[in-house]
Design brief:
The protein has 350 residues and is α/β, with parallel strands linked by helices. β4 and β5 form a beta hairpin. The chain is built from nine helices and 22 strands. The protein has two domains: 53 residues, no CATH class; 268 residues, TIM Barrel, CATH 3.20.20. The strands form six sheets. The protein has a nine-stranded mixed sheet. α3 crosses α4 and α8 packs parallel to α9. Helix content is 25%, strand content 24%.
Length: 350
């Protein structure tokens, strides 16, 4: 069960950030996310949690958590990474996007909604690792909000987690620089990237970010050797056309058939409460387009009991992993291979 943490952060608590450069006249350049903000003295970047304090970039949220919970790995969703295991999920406030369909908007947008009182309780990295170990988790997931903007927290806890034998996960919008992805390889094992569409104009309007930066972030994570799965939340009227979903499918396939694509059902939230839930038929059609594009594993999510939650062998179609919602009902993969035909199944299984 999630532990909600909601004391507030003051600017005097800010600690020096990573991946920034000084500029002329006291300004700084942030090289953490693809916005690459140039931040004037006394101002914040797009994320609202990184500020220019006297010519140095500082973070307002380092080791200040707003949530801590134990989740099944399937909730991330990661279906090819330690299936059936538990992840210790943590988050700070803040995001470098402003999606109008965000389902965690109360914490992701907290720094925009109340910039003088950013929620967060001091939670040292040792406590995060200890919480994961005591809870029987195999990994720590930096999730719920955007982990790129609390990179310092993830890095400190992630390095300690590696020493303790734990894996580390980002659930991310992918809007990170190549520099951030290369630095993350020291502690990060897997990432689920939310690819929200394939139209730059709509991306900018709904999320406040450019599609190019997301694609470059995905490719940098893959280059860094981090296991990647991709999720698209299918939102009616936003990204549910055949043209859009088929374009995403072709892009995911171009990265290699081994990368899983998750199609997640939208439920009304935040500024789209008047939008209907995604029709099941839309998700099923999108799955077919993914398979036609050459993706080996295309999943349908937020539909417990749907057959497309299961993992099938890409060679002989044997059911390898059977799921119901976030619960694992059976796993037949042995040594990373299909027991029926011996084909290798992409993923991290042990």
């Amino acid at each position: 069960m999630a532990r909600s943490l909601n004391t507030s952060t003051k600017r005097s608590d800010a600690q020096e950030a990573v991946l920034w450069r000084p500029l002329a006249d006291g300004a700084v350049a942030c090289d953490l996310c693809a916005h690459r903000c140039h931040v004037l003295p006394g101002r914040s970047g797009v994320c609202k949690v990184r500020i220019n304090d006297g010519g140095a970039l500082r973070t307002l949220v380092k080791n200040r958590l707003v949530a801590a919970a134990v989740d099944p790995i399937e909730k991330k969703p990661l279906f090819h990474f330690l299936p059936g295991s538990l992840a210790y999920s943590v988050a700070t406030a803040g995001c470098n996007f402003r999606c109008d369909f965000c389902q965690n908007w109360r914490i992701s947008q907290a720094a925009r909604l109340a910039p003088r009182s950013i929620p967060g309780e001091s939670f040292p990295p040792e406590a995060v690792v200890d919480g994961a170990l005591r809870s029987g988790c195999a990994s720590i997931a930096f999730t719920y909000t955007e982990p790129t903007v609390f990179f310092e927290t993830a890095e400190e806890a992630g390095l300690l987690a590696r020493e303790a034998g734990l894996k580390n996960i980002f659930v991310t919008n992918g809007y990170m620089t190549r520099e951030a992805a290369m630095r993350a390889k020291a502690f990060l094992d897997a990432a689920n990237v939310d690819l929200k569409g394939f139209d730059d104009r709509r991306y900018r309007r709904a999320c406040g970010a450019a599609l190019k930066g997301v694609l470059e972030g995905i490719e940098a994570l893959i280059e860094a050797g981090i296991w990647v799965e991709i999720t698209t939340l299918v939102v009616p009227g936003f990204n549910d056309s055949k043209e859009e979903l088929a374009a995403i499918a072709r892009y995911v396939a171009s990265l290699g058939p081994r990368i899983p694509w998750h199609l997640s059902r939208f439920h009304p939230d935040f500024k789209r409460t008047g939008c209907p839930a995604t029709p099941v038929s839309t998700l099923e059609r999108a799955r077919n387009w993914g398979i036609e594009a050459g993706i080996n594993h295309v999943y349908v999510g937020n539909l417990p009991g749907h057959r497309a939650e299961n993992t099938f062998c890409p060679n002989c179609a044997t059911i390898l992993i059977e799921r119901s919602g976030f619960s694992l009902m059976g796993n037949r993969i042995a040594g990373g291979c299909c027991p029926g035909c011996g084909a290798k199944v992409a993923g991290i299984w042990v």
